[in-house]
């Protein structure tokens, strides 16, 4: 029996002008130390597609390329595939998830073999505590669904002339669909990742435009989904007020158990909805902090995502120390090793 179902495939859009659907892969190869973030999606009713793509190596080699306003082409969305021109998602024969991407400076062709079926967020706190997302709150978080999972990774990546074959990597993936209008909200943390088959998780905390706090998430522990009583995520940022170099999350489960997940960031990738580094008419620029989470002696991969925008501004991001806002192949000049 396949772990995959129609929830993992492209959905029929509503008539909302900001309805979007996207698939994200966060990955790490323990042998080379390579990490990456790949997102392919489309604002279907606007007729545009999007690729967000960033990768890095521990020596500071990094790649980033976003393509955010490509015209949606016939064949980009089928029953089992979605393409944004430079990136593609598919589930061949409903056996694994495949992520592909192409650029003159980089390539990826990766396969994720999930450990468990996709999980959607549940409320943490409030009157709907413990229940999966439903009702008006979906408009608050800009989604009708957010199925996520994790698994073993294999395939091939390329940085310039360097090709890396991955035989036993680790990956986390997500899939968001629904209305996602432009909103200049105040702050958000999305700590989502895995340390292997024993423990995977997704933790979301955000302040909306009006200042209300929302928390969602799930934990898959030893093959069983656990209800979260409460959690907090703490991000360590540099003096640019933006570059994340690590942190931690502490999760209280309903059964009384407490999990602490410590995080060391390998590199950061700046993302925004409509412009490379944010700006008027785009979402507040966030950092996909591609990181190594550690729990109970195990190490994995996570996105330690952070958006801080307490004054609700719309200026573009620039002059960052550890968050990549440049295009193409570059070399990071900042070394955080001595301050960790």
Task: Write the SSE topology.
Elements: E1 19-28, E2 35-43, E3 48-56, E4 61-64, E5 67-71, E6 81-83, E7 87-90, E8 97-103, E9 106-114, E10 122-123, H1 137-141, E11 148-159, E12 162-179, E13 187-194, E14 199-207, E15 213-221, E16 224-226, E17 228-237, E18 244-253, E19 258-271, E20 286-295, E21 298-299, E22 301-308, E23 323-324, E24 328-331
Parallel strand pairs: 19-23
Antiparallel strand pairs: 1-2, 1-12, 2-3, 3-4, 3-5, 4-24, 6-7, 7-8, 8-9, 9-11, 10-15, 11-12, 13-14, 13-22, 14-15, 15-16, 17-18, 18-19, 19-20, 20-21, 20-22
Molecular structure report:
It is built from 1 helix and 24 strands. It has one helix at 137-141; strands spanning 19-28, 35-43, 48-56, 61-64, 67-71, 81-83, 87-90, 97-103, 106-114, 122-123, 148-159, 162-179, 187-194, 199-207, 213-221, 224-226, 228-237, 244-253, 258-271, 286-295, 298-299, 301-308, 323-324, 328-331. The strands form 2 sheets. Strands 1, 2, 3, 4, 5, 6, 7, 8, 9, 11, 12 and 24 form a 12-stranded antiparallel beta sheet that branches. Strands 10, 13, 14, 15, 16, 17, 18, 19, 20, 21, 22 and 23 form a 12-stranded mixed beta sheet that branches. Strand 7 (87-90) and strand 8 form a beta hairpin. The protein is globular, with a radius of gyration of 18 Å.
